[in-house]
Write a structure and sequence with these properties.
Bound molecules: nicotinamide-adenine-dinucleotide, zinc ion
Largest sheet: 7 strands, mixed
């Protein structure tokens, strides 16, 4: 088969590799019908994720058709249309039993992390993928849900929903700010609406992204490069700051912004993956009764999101900015890697 193979920092190729096979009775093999590219794949290609070794097939998002199941797989069958989740869950370890699939202890490359596709094992930017723990990690696609929407369930929708909105405890009437209106921040904006906030403020350096956020449910936008960006946020919140600040960038500046705009007794939900240390001024903030959360997506809300998607209750078609054939994945990477010029959000690749 053909796959997108990582060959060390800055080097990748769409090339012939051996077909995946069932290695364990709990495995399935899935023919990829639709996949996409994530900001994390760009980080890997820069060499920021050393656990990814040369020869690894990238990708942790996908929708496909089961072509083979292991002997222990009884609930799924050849021909089933499934979503491949970015998190693999054994379903048996202590963390899985608590629903914290992100920290599954099963050893598929290294124990203790549920994100293994395109990281510790071969991923979904390929014609076929081997899926461990198939029954507890694959989700059936309901009839009538298009592949290109279902693939949003692999990562960005549960990430924005779980680590942004749910950890941030968005509640009816809340004023919510989402710092960073990339795909993940927009997913938080799109799912915050499920909880009845009174305002959702999109904050981004890019005025175009701030505008785009209004198509996903943002009621207001603030351009982060405006000198008075903070005053603009406070003007939208009776001068008190937001109830929930969601950080969806992953740099010290946006972490500081989230802490600067949250009101006392509010929530700061960090979603961004940080590469540098950030500060926390407890000498000022200790008195503010804040809740600060962070984490890796569990995908435990994927079944709920799939149901809402099937019922048309998540308006997420706006995520799809470009479409390519899977074999043109190198062009798709070019487009996605130049999002500032191409305005790419999610680039869909179809077999
Ligand atoms: P992205 O790079 O596409 O979007 C980031 C957005 O932040 C861009 O629109 C950019 O203009 C904006 N931005 C950058 N600097 C800013 C600043 N100083 N002020 C305001 N806005 C600024 O990223 P994405 O794919 O949307 O992902 C967002 C973050 O979520 C990343 O750090 C990613 O690694 C992380 N992530 C976390 C999880 C998790 O489980 N916690 C899962 C997936 C992704
Ligand atoms: Zn587990």
């Amino acid at each position: 088969m053909k796959a997108l193979v990582y060959h060390g920092p800055g080097r990748k190729a769409w090339e012939e590799v051996p077909d995946p096979v069932i290695l364990k009775p709990t495995d399935a093999v899935v023919k990829i019908d639709t996949t996409t590219i994530c900001g994390t794949d760009l980080h890997i290609l820069k060499g920021d994720v050393p656990a990814v070794t040369e020869g690894r097939i990238l990708g942790h998002e996908g929708v496909g058709t089961i072509t083979e199941v292991g002997a222990a797989v009884t609930d799924l069958a050849v021909g089933d249309r499934v979503i491949v989740s970015c998190i693999s869950a054994c379903g048996k370890c202590d963390f899985c039993k608590k629903g914290v699939f992100s920290h599954c202890r099963a050893d598929e490359g290294a124990p203790g992390i549920g994100w293994i596709f395109g990281h510790l094992i071969d991923g979904t930017q390929a014609e076929y993928v081997r899926v461990p723990f198939a029954e507890t990690s694959l989700y059936r696609v309901p009839d009538g849900v298009a592949d290109e929407l279902a693939v949003l369930i692999s990562d960005i929708l549960p990430t924005g929903h779980e680590i942004g909105v749910r950890y941030g405890r968005v509640s009816p009437g809340d004023v919510v700010a989402v710092v960073g209106a990339g795909p993940v921040g927009l997913a938080a904006i799109a799912t915050a609406g499920l909880y009845g906030p009174s305002r959702v403020i999109a904050v981004d350096l890019d005025a175009n992204r701030v505008e785009q956020a209004k198509h996903f449910g943002a009621t207001d936008g603030v351009v982060a490069s405006d000198a008075d960006w903070k005053e603009q946020v406070f003007a939208l919140t009776d001068g008190l700051g937001v109830d929930v600040a969601i950080e969806a960038v992953g740099v010290p500046a946006t972490w500081d912004m989230a802490l600067a705009i949250v009101r006392p007794a509010g929530h700061v939900a960090n979603v961004g993956v940080h590469g540098k240390a950030v500060g926390l001024h407890l000498e000022e903030k200790w008195i503010e009764n804040l809740t600060i959360t962070t984490g890796l997506v569990n995908t435990d809300t994927s079944p709920t999101l799939i149901k809402l998607l099937a019922q048309g209750k998540l308006d997420v078609a706006g995520f799809i900015s470009h479409r390519y054939a899977l074999s043109d994945i190198l062009d798709a990477y070019e487009t996605f890697g130049n999002a500032a010029e191409t305005k790419a959000l999610k680039v869909i690749l179809s077999a």
